[in-house]
Design brief:
This protein has 471 residues and is an alpha+beta fold. The protein contains 18 helices and 19 strands. It folds into 3 domains: 3-24 and 37-113, Uridine Diphospho-n-acetylenolpyruvylglucosamine Reductase, domain 2; 120-230 and 441-456, Uridine Diphospho-n-acetylenolpyruvylglucosamine Reductase, domain 3 (2-Layer Sandwich); 234-426, Vanillyl-alcohol Oxidase, Chain A, domain 3 (3-Layer(aba) Sandwich), CATH 3.40.462. It is 30% helix and 23% strand. The strands form 4 sheets. An 8-stranded antiparallel sheet has the order 15-12-14-13-17-18-16-19, with helices on both faces. Strand 5 (120-122) and strand 6 (127-131) form a beta hairpin. The chain is globular, with a radius of gyration of 22 Å. Bound molecules: flavin-adenine dinucleotide. The site of flavin-adenine dinucleotide has 35 residues, from strand 3, helix 7, strand 10 and helix 13.
């Protein structure tokens, strides 16, 4: 299927690409936004009933109601609204799934909102074309039963746009790489309002930047094409421990060694929480594509005689069902209601660092802090650090998210103690307080990203507090 058919913009889009602003003056009345009709865009003003609900981020965490929200349904509408915003000197934010930790998709003025560009089409050969506003759940559903998957992120209501533009880490990352590694092309509206298709051959630099350079800095992505990967059987596993901090630290370091020396077909995530007994609650969830027997044996090696808090669960099930279990709103609900700080560790945590971290964690008691660790490496590190804009390709790196009540001294102490072991931070887990955030997010890829920014958006039309700076 051709992308043009998929997006249902037909001749309108073709005409738009050739002569993007031919009808702009006619389409606009006075200084108002472009009038294009409901197939292309719906405007919601701040005083309308729907405005507030549409302004919520994930789990209603932040609500900034913009004066105007443009719910765009075609690349043409996106281009026209961008051009209008430039003409009239309006600042705007770009929103797809609204999951940004730091509200970069919110604005009190204008929000260009892509949530309705959410169609997903799967070709028989495994090519997936998805609108920028499609959520991980939409992709899972579209691929269910097809024998193929995309290595997306874990949370099902995250939209593709933010996820892929920043990288996209999930349980299949060690087996198949990041979400952005499966990308074959992106359709994107640039600062002039033109619709471009960027891939390895055309606008290759922009394509490079769209794989890890972060959302909201180079243009507005309207759709993505991916190559889905075959998957043959998935096994979900789930382990939990309640242990004193030194014992929990031993499990944690053992798990990291098991991960980095082990089978790339095992994807895991560890959550650490203070337990009311004064110990540490560790929960490890995982997904394996290594077959049931092999998974049971390998998971047994991980447990290695340590007393579990509840019986281990190791169960074969369809990928889509396992995905439902992998994002539950228990401990990780804190990621949304709490302030989250994040970093990428340079290597596995030492036993000393893990013990210190967990000893601090149990001090958080009544105002619990949670720590979530996702290992990278394996297929993520098979792509060179400069092959895409996502730089964290080390074989033993992990992301660590520390979520706590705003102002939590425990969370701050854990973060500060980990800094010496840190290689940077993941742009999709943004943190407004990171010192030197451009280098933390993009490392040695930063100068190239800045050059691309200067080329495609020299006036910094697409910007938020932590988008790639011009210089
Ligand atoms: C509960 C939760 C779970 C998460 N789980 C994971 C996970 O498993 N793996 C992972 O890698 N990440 C995860 N994340 C982080 C997530 O990848 C980022 O928050 C991502 O940026 C969200 O994208 P979005 O489109 O939903 O959010 P938005 O808030 O809409 O956008 C995020 C950023 O992208 C920009 N943007 C949005 N749409 C576009 C567009 N169409 N074109 C250009 N720029 C755009 C915005 O301006 C903003 O800067 C999670 C976040 C949350 C809150």
């Amino acid at each position: 299927m051709r992308r043009r058919d998929f997006l249902k913009t037909g001749a309108a889009a073709t005409g738009f690409v050739a002569a993007p602003f031919l009808s702009r003056a006619a389409a606009r009345s006075g200084d108002g936004p472009p009038a294009l009709g409901g197939d292309h865009v719906t405007y919601v003003r701040a005083d309308e009933t729907a405005a507030s609900a549409l302004s919520e981020g994930y789990a209603g965490r932040h609500v900034v109601v913009p004066r105007l929200r443009a719910l765009c349904r075609s690349p043409r509408a996106v281009g026209e609204v961008v051009h209008w915003a430039r003409d009239t000197g309006r600042r705007f934010a770009v929103r797809s799934g609204g999951h940004c930790f730091e509200d970069f998709s919110q604005s009190p003025d204008l929000v260009i909102d892509l949530r309705d560009l959410n169609r997903v089409h799967v070709d028989p050969d495994g090519r997936v074309v998805a609108g920028a506003g499609a959520q991980v759940a939409d992709i899972l559903q579209a691929l269910a039963g097809s024998g193929r998957v995309l290595p997306t992120g874990t949370c099902q209501s995250v939209a593709l746009a933010g996820l892929v533009l920043g990288g996209g880490i999930g349980f299949l990352s060690r087996a198949h790489g990041l979400a952005c590694d499966a990308l074959t092309d992106v359709e994107i509206v640039d600062a002039e309002g033109h619709t471009l298709t960027a891939d390895h051959a055309s606008h290759a630099d922009l394509f490079w930047a769209c794989r890890g350079g972060g959302g909201g800095g180079f243009g507005i992505a309207t759709s993505f094409s991916f190559r889905a990967v075959p998957i043959d059987g998935t096994i979900y596993f789930d382990l939990a421990w309640v242990l004193a901090p030194p014992d929990a630290a031993r499990i944690l370091t053992h798990w990291q060694a098991w991960t980095f020396a082990g089978d790339h077909r095992f994807g895991t995530m560890m959550v650490c929480l203070p337990h009311f007994t004064g110990g540490v609650f560790l929960r490890l969830q995982g997904l394996s594509t290594a077959g049931l027997d092999r998974t049971e044996r390998h998971v047994a090696r991980l447990v290695d005689g340590a007393r579990l808090w509840s019986p281990a669960r190791v169960e074969q099930m369809p990928f889509v069902d396992a995905s439902d279990l992998l994002w539950t709103d228990d401990a990780r609900g804190q990621m949304t209601s709490h302030r989250t700080r994040s970093l990428v560790t340079a290597g596995p945590l030492t036993l000393e660092a893990a013990t210190d971290m967990l000893a601090r964690l149990v001090q958080s008691g009544a105002d619990p802090v949670s720590i979530l660790i996702e290992p990278l490496g394996s297929a993520v590190s098979e792509t060179a650090a400069d092959a895409t804009a996502f730089p964290h390709r080390g074989e033993t790196q992990s992301t660590v998210q520390i979520a706590g009540p705003p102002g939590s001294t425990v969370a701050a102490g854990i973060y500060d103690a980990l800094l010496p072991q840190t290689a940077g931070a993941y742009a999709n887990y943004p943190d407004r307080d990171i010192a030197g955030w451009p280098s933390a997010y993009w490392g040695t890829n930063l100068p190239r990203l800045q050059a691309i920014k200067r080329r495609y958006d020299p006036d910094d039309v697409f910007r938020h507090r932590q988008s790639v700076p011009l210089a």
